[in-house]
Amino acid sequence: MRAFNLNISSDIDLLLPPAVSGQYDVNIAQGIITLPTLEQTKIFRAGAQALYAFHHSGHFLVWPNMVALQITANNITYQKLGNIPIGLLRIFILSEAIGILLHLRGHFMLHASALEHQGQATVFLGTPGAGKSTTVTAFAKEGFNVLSDDLVAITPHSPATVIPAFPEIKIWKNTAEGLGIDVSSLSPAWEGKDKYIMKLKSSSSSTNTYPLKQFIIIIPFVEHNTNSSELIGPVELLKYFPLPHQLLNPSALKKHFEVSASILSTTALVTVQRPADFNKLSKYVQNFKNL
User: Fold this and answer.
1) Is 72 left (phi over 0), alpha (psi -120 to 50) or beta?
2) What is the DSSP string of 83-129?
3) Picking from 44-48, 198-202, 251-255, 265-269, which range would have the lowest pLDDT averaged per residue?
4) How far apart are CA 64 and CA 51, in angstroms?
5) pLDDT by residue (tens digit) across 180-219?
6) What confidence score (pLDDT) does residue 205 get?
7) Environment class of residue 153 by beta-carbon count within 10 Å: exposed (0-12), middle (13-18) or buried (19+)?
8) Which residue from 53, 102, 106, 162 could staple onto 121, CB 3.0 to 4.6 Å apart?
9) Which residues, in sequence order, are CB contacts of 185 under 8 Å at separation 6+?
10) Please, are residues 16 and 204 in contact by the beta-carbon 8 Å criterion?
11) What whole-number distance in Å separates Cα of residue 5 and Cα of residue 20?
12) 100 and 61 in contact (C-beta within 8 Å)?
């Protein structure tokens, strides 16, 4: 299996594209985990608040009564703490757990979505509910290559590049219906009764990365305010760190800020008001094609 340009060996089917030739980069397997003292995070998923700890043997992420995960730069060990459906276990592994693994491997992580246009990557940011997944779903429907939904990994070299994640988008039922997508063709996302997974044409099995062109921050629709504006300052990207805040201790936070500044020195950062309705969103996508 393959995601984020990594060959993955797993004892459960993560429904990912096949690995390319070569050795495995990451191993995912069930095991017995001895937990250190845990702290609450600011992360919620499937109605539960995640707990976190760091120990010399790895980083630990726990969803109470569901699953415990032990994470290093090359391994994810999971232990079921209850009768968790495999679909939900997959979500936990392919969200914050693999995000921590990528962070440990030196990638700059964002709670965001990304797409490719003319060989370059655009990353969409926004607070929860701002419309990131809705926006990239509209782009996917028009044939754009969606690189990632929910979790974006950037290689912070010069120039910065975006790594394809895996070919799917999580969308709400009303989004699918508003975009004219048949809900019966989608799979349940296990995080909410009205949330679904939309499978896309695979782009993750390649070894491609895409130069980062721009960040677009989606802000809620406000009537009579239709202007886009530039934002200046690397502190803006700190808002979208997707992993336990404990990972950004003072020295790590300083480095994270410096990497943010380096990326933004060569990358545009703008805000765009969320289109007021699905028709205007479609027009936005069509206009984007001509940029």
Assistant:
1) beta
2) ---HHHHHHHIIIIIHHHHHHHTT-EEES-EEEEETTEEEEEE-STT
3) 198-202
4) 8
5) 999 988 988 876 668 889 988 765 445 689 999 999 999 8
6) 46
7) buried
8) 162
9) none
10) yes
11) 9
12) yes
Query: 261: helix, coil or strand?
Result: helix
Q: Tokens 């802000």 correspond to what residue?
A: 219
Dihedral angle over CA of 51, 53, 59, 60, nearest 10:
-40
| Cα dihedral across residues 32, 37, 43, 44: positive or negative | positive
93 Cβ neighbours under 8 A, 6+ residues apart = 14, 28, 69, 76, 78
**Cβ distance 200 to 166 under 8 Å?**
no
Which residues, 6+ apart, have CB-to-CB distance to 250 below 8 Å? none
Q: 50: helix, coil or strand?
A: strand
Which residues are paired to 60 by β-bridges? Answer: 53, 70
40, β-bridge pairs: 51
- Residue given tokens 């392919």 in the structure block: 94
For each of the domains in the chain, give its residue range(s) and CATH number, in order of start.
Answer: 2-105 (no CATH), 110-289 (3.40.50)
pLDDT, tens digit, 9 for 90 and up, residues 62-118: 999 999 999 999 999 999 999 999 999 999 999 999 999 999 999 999 999 999 999
Token pair, residue 98, equals 């693999």
Residue 102 has which token pair?
């990528």
How far apart (Å, rounded) are the C-alpha atoms in residues 12 and 110?
A: 26
